[in-house]
Amino acid sequence: MSVAIDTRPLDLLADFPAIPEGWAYLDTAATAQKPKPVIDAIHRGYGETYATVHRGVYQRSADMTYAFEAARNRVAKFIGGKPEETIFVRGATEGINLVAQCWAGTQLKAGDRILLSTLEHHSNIVPWQMVAERVGAEIDVIPLTADQRIDLDAMAAMLTERHKLVALAHVSNVLGSTLDAKRAADLAHAVGAKLLLDGCQAVPRMAVDVAALDCDFYVFSGHKLYGPTGIGVLWGRYELLDAMPPYQGGGSMIDRVTFAKTTYAPPPGRFEAGTPHIVGVLGLHAACDYVDGIGLERIHAHETALVRMTREALSSINSVRLFGPEDSAGIVSFAVEGVHPHDVATILDEGQVAIRAGHHCAQPLMDVLGVPATARASFAVYSGPRDIEALVKGVERVTRIFG
Fold first, then answer.
1. For this structure, is 361 an active site residue?
2. DSSP assigned state of 15
3. Per the residue annotation, which of 200, 215, 288, 361 is the catalytic one?
4. Are 74 and 285 in contact (CB under 8 A)?
5. Judging by DSSP bridges, how do beta strands 374-378 and 356-358 pair with one another?
6. Which of 146, 208, 209, 385 is most buried by a 10 A CB count?
7. pLDDT tens digit string along 197-236?
């Protein structure tokens, strides 16, 4: 029996105190605004319950340790993983670098190959280049389909047994195109390669189940999920994590230290050296609760409707070029003919519309699109039709000014 999804528009602007009346915040793909429950959790963590974790024997430290590990359980459940496979990092960038250094850097050798795609964020390109240069591996790049998705047919044709790792964006931060992640996993595993997914843009707007996706590593940043900055998650299969050396040395990641030899804690502790971002973890727990309270199916339906409205409105302006597929997930990138995106963003800002303009840390993609940059509007649970009206009004003003 199918369950009906509530597709009514969301009206949650009141939950976000940093968004003033009349301001259209359309830069969520860069970072999401924070709802009151997350702000309250951070305030309590610093103002009422703060203590260190994993070390103190006094009651407040024990209570905070319990809350910290409860957050790990909550985040693991949120993505369909297990707590022992869920590592807290500073963000997706650190998570990718950890896998690059501790898995790829120890498993890859000269002549091995890494497979990326044309639309990857720099954070899912540069760490692999660094490792490849060090060990003598090579990088291949999957092209895009005509509607600007990762071309999985091309991926199937490109893969060989020399490919040891595939690293792909679950949702593009520029185009909003969604990867068929399960098929990507099947293709990678067919040649014995591991699959890492960059879930930064996927986790805030669609249900993610790492077990069902059958990936090997999954990373995302808390601040795009309505949580704090400086906290993120690396999920990995336990057998892979358990065979990996530590990323950093220090306190908490050890079993026993002597000057002759040090032995390391099992995952996830092995990869969490030093005092963690304790309150950031509590804020991330609150963010997961907030999103689940709304429902990811409803969030996805809300953002899908906003994307459709935006693409329809902008496509009616002759000088506007749209990028990405029609069903892009929560993101609409565009360009105005003859106008640099920075100028577009500046004029929109004068009308209290905040968008992102630039290469979005995806310069190779810009080269393929044939533009130096794009303007990007991205949506969230606090976005609504009035934001789109303000955006379109601003773009029309841009065309008048530069027309």
1. yes
2. G
3. 361
4. yes
5. antiparallel
6. 208
7. 999 999 999 999 999 999 999 999 999 999 999 999 999 9
